[in-house]
Amino acid sequence: MPDPSPAFGREASSRPSRASLRTAVVWDVLKDALDRRVGTTGKGSLDVLDTGGGSGNFAVPVARLGHRVTVVDPSPNALFALERRAAEAGVAELVTGVQGDVRGLFDVVERGAYDAVLCHGVLEYVDDPAEGVRNTVAALRPGGALSLLGAGLGGAVLARALAGHFTEARTALGDPDGRWGDGDPVPRRFTAEQLTGLAEEAGLSVGAVHGVRIFADLVPGVLVDTEPGAAEALLKLEAAAAELSAFHAVATQLHVLAEKPV
């Protein structure tokens, strides 16, 4: 199968892009989980559901691995962009976009029909995150994997403080939803414990927790773009720190990989 990493800007002939610095950790964990699922099931092609998958940032690379991907998203514009991106990548026959959301998930997809479910950047915006996770779990086959990505509380606090907005940083630190004020565009943020708790309460076994964008959002872009080798070194640093629990508390995003019992 073709290597899907170019979709993340990771061409071997060039330095990593800013986008790849933000997605590489999640992609590597997800790809490993899909490979393990292939080995466990003996199927060459998996059924993957991407809730809130938008224009296909993950769905298209997953399809480039040979898997069938269904993307559920409420935005018609995003689904149109998904269709175009899948066609350009040569995987249009493997990618299906349907309009919907995680709350009404089973109005548009089947229960228990998927080997893996992606729920990235969704729980921040739903009224009931626990219900959202339960729905994603109900979409999984026994032994299937859930890739859960949510906004991290600590990363937002640190970012506001480093920008000189100390009152907003303190507000986010004490707010039940991790918001720094009325102008905060993110309705809800999580700690690693909260995200893993949602997965475990839904009956999943948590296999790994990773911090995402620990440094990438804090390092000045001019440094990454102009210093020789800086982007590659930063990518390696992100990967090295991602699994260390000490850094989960300051990550911009948190990634949880969990499995449904067989």
From TrEMBL:
Q: In terms of domain of life, where is this protein from?
A: Bacteria
One of the GO biological process terms: methylation
Q: Methyltransferase as a keyword?
A: yes
Instruction: Identify the keywords attached in UniProt to this record, alphabetized.
Output: Methyltransferase, S-adenosyl-L-methionine, Transferase
For whether the record's keyword set contains S-adenosyl-L-methionine, the answer is yes
**Residue ranges occupied by any Methyltransferase type domain in the UniProt entry:** 49-146
InterPro entries registered for this protein in UniProt:
Methyltransf_12 (IPR013217), SAM-dependent_MTases_sf (IPR029063)
Single Gene Ontology MF annotation:
methyltransferase activity
Q: Where are the transmembrane segments?
A: none
Indicate what this protein is called per its UniProt record: Methyltransferase
**Native organism:** Streptomyces filamentosus (Streptomyces roseosporus)
